[in-house]
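hey can u check if this looks right to u? its 194 residues, i copy pasted from the old doc so theres a chance i mangled smth
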Amino acid sequence: MGPYREAAASHDPCPRCAGPLAPRAIADAAIDECLSCQGVFVRNQLLDRFLDPLDLGGEVLAQSEVAAPALLSGGGRMYVKCPRCQTVMNRKQFATGARVVVDVCRDHGIWFDAAELRAVVAFADGGGMERAARRDAEQRVQEDEARVARATERWPFTPPSHTPHSSSTLLDEIISLLTGWPSSSALGARDGRG
């Protein structure tokens, strides 16, 4: 048992192995840790603090050892339920390039299997969140450009080419029709400027 684990188990079972969850203190915060598989549940309100190496992220890096690759594989059920609301959580990659798949309850928090919280904290500490945000933004731009290109290929007509005075010529023609006066394009053609 680690130095920050408390003995009392919570009433919520581990979503991965159904073992008992117990509160684990990290600095001034608490997470729920499974006493059997060492997975942890982090509430949404604490996540940003864990991604900050000067806050809880630094505590996690200082407390935990680098996990053996076997611990990162997870195991147990593929889809798990939130320990708070019992809703099946969504599995997703934590961030682009993080190489950690977590289980997310939109309302309550994220389940990290054994060693995944440390892996995510180390990823964030190494600038991974900023790199992921840049890659995601670049991907969205590429997708938008591709969507525009596909849409323009399907247009049934070719837009008229823009000439410097095309809109003013049309306006002149409308005014000429309404007033009976000759349009400026008609005057230009008569004077040899059109």
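The chain has two domains: 21-130, 163-194.
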